[in-house]
Design brief:
By secondary structure, this protein is α/β, with parallel strands linked by helices. It has a single domain (about 30-545), classed as Alkaline Phosphatase, subunit A (3-Layer(aba) Sandwich), CATH 3.40.720.10. It has 13 helices and 19 strands. The strands form four sheets. Strands 1, 2, 3, 4, 5, 6, 7, 8, 11, 12 and 13 form an eleven-stranded mixed sheet that branches. A four-stranded antiparallel sheet has the order 14-15-16-17, with helices on one face. A two-stranded antiparallel ribbon has the order 9-10. The chain is globular.
């Protein structure tokens, strides 16, 4: 008698083979698996030059697909970068660019977030019949006016299913790891929570897991989080094997606090950070294997990236380096427009559609995913202005030049730098109007605060702007002058004209607190904690619950 296990295996193989055969006959829309790591440096990955951290699964995606070498985040910090990624527009257009010290959302109990009026690629695909899911980190807000209105929640922005962290994983979630919340805000919050009689509970209120709109764990059991996120992502793919789907797998790695997963602890050559990165690579391999084993590879576009560059300043005397390595590129997370904070991995794999091993050196953007997914989903409905471009002609080798002649780099709401790829030239010129003041002087980052700021005494303005040619000087180490670059004046003039056109596109979209068509979501009153907006499992303020993880 045949084994039931063998029979089930044969049935699975036949179904997978049938899907491959039918895929040639039925014009089924492609699936999308988007994988984003948090705070990953471009120099951390083998196929981008790292030869001491093992990333065979990420490297395999590159060898079987297309690798972008000049893939750019719209901002060097989580919230504005992710807003731009989701919408295909600079975060200034959705009010998620900061004017002051606080540059990302700090509390789940704040009222700021991705405005309900914004359109994400998930919302567009949902309207085209896709089943959509976000598994992992969101960090774009939850509530607006009262607990449970969920106006900023992923479910309201096109994701049919959400499992993960509506905020982010941060040091406050693990005792002994310190705090990511600014000391002055902590003090104010501490005074408020003492008045409520709940002590410092609010410092862990951010640390929650939601399934759709329900809080299912508060605070997070960090030890099992990687396995749970991976399992949810794999199960979503398996549940939707027979219909077009979009999965955005937004990893909690490699943001601090670093995980201590036993299977990877002490296995790398770079301490806990290297261990975490090798765990990331294993997770990417598991997702790839799930897609391939179900016979979906030839109808699935897989994408791998980071939300911005590695966090250079994050280290301590016990663990050592906690942040990433950005290779030859200057700067990192929260360091304005320097390449190290905005140049990220960009890998696309689609067997049978994209040539294996292709490398694209042209400027591209995380904002390009929005128009690319729309194009592939055959979404031809009118849309609002986009700052990204459909990547498929470039990925397929049908064109050689990127449509990004100019790209604009913001530090908060302030235009920090601009790159220009002149037609008919290999050069990519980049100007910096101002640069963050590194501390201590001469250091490669803002070690005093861990986050460089974008205004006032925290920056140095340059007149004329600093000018580099990234084609010849990708590390931005040799500023050009009229003596070393004959076109110096012409380059600055062309960039000035481009800035004027760009600013014209922002007319009636200037961020303000009152009557503007785009209200700032990053003002202090929107960021600060409001008890009546705090997501809670149980009776507020005594929140607390645990997800059953016995089977993990």
């Amino acid at each position: 008698m045949r084994s039931p296990m063998l029979a089930n295996l044969l049935i699975s193989l036949l179904l997978a083979a049938g899907r491959d055969v039918l895929g040639d006959k039925v014009d089924r829309k492609p699936n999308f698996v988007l994988m984003m790591v948090d705070d990953l440096g471009i120099g951390d990955v083998g196929c981008y030059g790292n030869d001491t951290i093992r990333t065979p699964n990420i490297d395999r995606l590159a060898s079987e697909g297309v690798k972008l070498t000049q893939h750019i985040a719209a901002a060097p910090l989580c919230t504005p970068s992710r807003a731009a990624f989701m919408t295909g527009r600079y975060s200034l257009r959705s009010g998620l660019a900061s004017t002051g010290n606080v540059q990302v959302l700090l509390f789940l109990g704040g009222s700021g977030g991705l405005p309900p009026s914004e359109t994400t690629f998930a919302k567009r695909l949902q309207q085209e019949g896709y089943t959509t899911s976000l598994v992992g980190k969101w960090h774009l807000g939850v509530n607006c006016e009262q607990r449970g209105d969920h106006c900023h929640h992923p479910n309201q922005h096109g994701f049919s299913y959400f499992y993960g962290l509506p905020f982010t994983l941060f040091n406050d979630c693990v005792p002994g790891e310190g705090s990511d919340i600014m000391a002055d805000l902590q003090k104010a919050l501490r005074n408020l929570t003492m008045l409520l009689g709940v002590g410092l509970l609010s410092l862990i209120w951010n640390c929650i897991i939601m399934r759709n709109q329900d809080v299912i764990e508060q605070p997070i059991t960090v030890e099992t989080l990687p396995q749970r996120l991976l399992g949810e992502a794999q199960n979503f793919i398996k549940r939707n094997v027979d219909q077009p789907f979009l999965l955005f797998f937004s990893l909690a790695h490699i943001h601090t606090p670093l995980f201590k997963t036993q299977a990877f602890a002490g296995k790398s050559r770079h301490g806990r950070y290297g261990d975490n990165l090798e765990e990331v690579d294993w997770m990417i391999g598991q997702i790839t294997e799930t897609v391939d084993s179900l016979g979906l590879a030839n109808n699935t576009l897989m994408y791998f990236t980071s939300d911005h560059g590695g966090h250079l300043e994050d280290a301590d005397s016990i663990i050592g380096q906690k942040g990433g390595w950005n290779g030859i590129y200057k700067g990192g997370k929260a360091m304005g427009g320097w390449e190290g904070g905005i140049r990220v991995p960009g890998i696309f794999r689609w067997p049978g559609r994209l040539a294996a091993g292709r490398v694209v050196d042209e400027p591209t953007s995380l904002m390009d995913l929005y128009p690319t997914l729309k194009y592939l989903a055959k979404d031809t409905q009118p849309d609002r202005q986009s700052d990204g471009f459909n990547l498929m002609p470039l990925l397929e080798g049908k064109v050689e030049r990127s449509e990004h002649e100019f790209m604009f780099h913001y530090c908060g709401i302030y235009l920090n730098a601009v790159r220009w790829h002149p037609p008919g030239s290999d050069s990519v010129f980049k100007v910096h109007f101002f640069t963050p003041n590194f501390s201590p002087p001469g250091a490669g980052g803002c070690y005093d605060t861990k986050i460089c700021l974008c205004h006032g005494e925290h920056v140095t303005h340059h007149n004329p702007p600093l000018l580099y040619d990234l084609f010849h000087d990708p590390s931005e180490s040799r500023a050009l002058t009229p003596d070393t670059e004959p076109r110096h004046a012409e380059i600055l003039e062309e960039i000035t004209k481009a800035v004027e056109r760009h600013r014209d596109s922002l007319t009636n979209m200037q961020v303000s607190d009152d009557t503007s068509s785009v209200q700032s979501q990053m003002t202090l009153d929107r960021i600060l904690w409001r008890p009546w907006l705090q997501p809670c499992c149980g009776t507020f303020p005594f929140c607390g619950c645990k997800e059953d993880t016995t089977n993990i």
